[in-house]
Each structure stands twice: as C-alpha cells, then as structure tokens.
Amino acid sequence: MGHGLFDFRHADLVEISIKLVYSSTNSVPLRKETMDILLVIGRVLFALLFINSGIAHLTKLEAMTGYAQFKKVPAAKLSVIVTGLMLVIGGLYVALGVYADLGGLLLAIFLVLSAFMMHNFWTIQDPQAKQGETINFFKNLSLAGAALIIFVLVGSGTDFGPSITEGFFNL
Fold it and tell me: Under the phi-then-psi rule, with left for phi > 0, alpha for psi from -120 to 50, and beta for the rest, what region is 99?
C-alpha cells in the first residue's frame, strides 16, 4: 500500500464508518426528524414530475391524443385520460403518503408502458430523434425502478416518513 493521503486499510474505513454512525446518541431524535423531512421532500420532488405531466395529459387532451395516435396507441384519447389520471393519482399518493405503494405501482406501470410505446427508439431512423427517444426510454425505465422500490418498501411496511395512511398492499 502507498502512503498517500487517501490510502486507508479496510479496518480504518470500517472504524471511521462506525464512529460516524454512533458519534452522538443525543442526535438520534434530531436525526429521525431530519430523515423524515428529507423523505417528504424527496417524495414531493419525485412526484412533481408525474403530477405535472398528468395535469398536462388532462388539460392538453387533444394535443396529447394526437401524439398518442401518431405513436399508434390503441384508444388514444381514452389512453391519454387514463394515463393522465394514473400520473396525477400516483404522484399525489406518493407525495402525500396516501397508499404510497399503490401510487408507486401506478407510476411504474405507466413508466414501463410509456417507455416501450412512446419512446421506442429502435424504430427511429433520424439520429437526433433516436437519441432523444433513447434518453427518454432509459429515463422512464430508471424512474420505473425507483417507483417499484417505493412500491416494495411501503408495501412491506418500511418507514417512508410521515404519511397519511399505511400501504395499500401487505407484501
């Protein structure tokens, strides 16, 4: 091993980690309050994207329906309304902690379906359009992963910060 500033033995790193975690027993209640605040902020920030998109689905129905028809979505207008409601309800459920597991599941379903139906980059020839759809495809899958994590954590009873209800599911 070298003698540089960042050369640590594994045992040193473990000892530092333990000291950081258990440095002060007086900070445990404050730490719980802080974590609750961060969880709520995180839930709201995560949900804003979906709530905003859902509202756009419903308030710009004709434009969204036209795009859905272009992408060959079956029952385009109904699909736009249903997905708009999924986004608003799912987002609100996660943000407010009202059946946040159900909210996460609604968002995950929307995101996976949307990735494959609306962002099918493999069918596009134009390099710029293909790049944009590729980014959106993988963004949707990544967000679906986060939504599924919310589904499992809340559904299995994990503390998800201050919430109005417990989970809808009992996993």
Answer: left
Using the structure block, give the residue that is written with the tokens 């994590």: 149
Q: How far apart are the first and last CA of the chain?
A: 47
- Which secondary structure element, helix H or strand E, spans residue 126, and what is its range? none
- pLDDT tens figures, 48-72: 999 999 999 999 999 999 999 999 9
Tokens of 90: 């799912």
From CA 81, how far away is CA 76, in angstroms rounded? 9
What is the DSSP annotation of 67-124?
A: HHHHTT-TTHHHHHHHHHHHHHHHHHHHHHTSSHHHHHHHHHHHHHHHHHHH--GGG-
Three-class SS state of 5: coil
The C-alpha atoms of residue 87 and residue 164 are separated, in whole angstroms, by 19
Q: Which two tokens stand for residue 97?
A: 């902690």
Contact present, 29 and 37 (Cβ < 8 Å): no
| pTM confidence score | 0.81
The helix/strand/coil state of 160 is coil
Quote the tokens at residue 2. Answer: 């070298």
Residue 169 near residue 101, CB atoms below 8 Å: yes
Please name the residue that has the structure tokens 């499992």. 152
